[in-house]
Amino acid sequence: MKLFCVLLSFICSVYVSADLNLYRREVFITNKHIKAASKNNHDLHGNSLERVIKHIVFANNYGYGYEYNMYALSLMIAVPEHIDLADIFFYIHFQRCIRSVIRLKTSVPVPDVQNQTSGNLNLPQLGKDRRRTTRKALRQIIINVLDGLEYVIETIVNEDIYWKAHLHFMLAFPENANLTNIQIPISEFIDLQRTIREKIIATLPEMPHVDVQTIPVPDEDFENDLRQLGIDRRLLTEKAIKNVIRSAPGLTEPNTALRELCCLIGLMNSTKFGKIFSTNEGVYPEVYCSLYDGAYHYIVYRTFESIWHQVDPHNFDIQLEPLWSQLE
Q1: Looking at the whole model, is its pTM more than 0.90?
Q2: SS3 content of the chain, % helix, strand, coil (to 5)
Q3: How far apart are CA 326 and CA 70, in angstroms?
Q4: What Å distances lie between residue 22 and 15, 102, 121, CA to CA?
Q5: What is the rounded distance in angstroms from the CA atom of residue 129 to the CA atom of residue 51?
Q6: pLDDT tens track for 107-123
Q7: Phi then psi for 42, rounded to 5 degrees?
């Protein structure tokens, strides 16, 4: 009986070892594929890895009939080493899944690793290698979501206190001010230009303050230059306005953008701490995003006048650090 138990134990350990080696190789191949995607940049679509991560995170918005929960996203993007050997093929599925998305969405082929070996790398090291690559992409995605000028424009529009004509003069056509209209004093047009400067300072307080008194002013007749100044303004704001429109949440799901931003923040923290976080988000009393690691540790973010900060998980009114500073 003892001999039978010893043999059974030996056979089980062999199978577990074989399964672990199989999974480790899958993670190794996926790491190579992710690395290749991170180095692939497209003139139109941008960085391939960023595109893949956004596709996976926003999959439920594309009408494909599926979405990935935070656990699955974390296994694919941040912590592939967090597995249960009793169901190894469940975890292999997710490693192959992200490779399929890379191949289908970017045409970056799966690297040929037949003549390569994963060596003596253990799963924790493979996980660190994965996070080293994906963390940079996640940071950039969040930066794009919270792009400074886009953030300013979105804040101004969402405040819903400016007439369309005001937005028109501030963002797109400052040269269309009718300076000869005695019913509208020129001071109103000047105030609109000052307003957008004040909004930039208020919305992005961590940006260096620009003293307008030190900016050199050309000697030429400004009336002749207004058309060019308008063109320059539109060159600055056009891309940001388009991105705001692209990222606007659907009318039927007003919190879609918040849910996915919270998901991205959770994944970014997974790449930092090597943990799987569940996420929870809401809009009352303030817009917030809460992360939980399953071990009674919470990381919480909320907005203060439209600016995201990490806050004390026990007191949401205590600011710890701006989200922007964590993206550097």
Answers
A1: no
A2: 60, 10, 30
A3: 21
A4: 10, 21, 13
A5: 20
A6: 899 888 776 665 567 88
A7: -115, 140
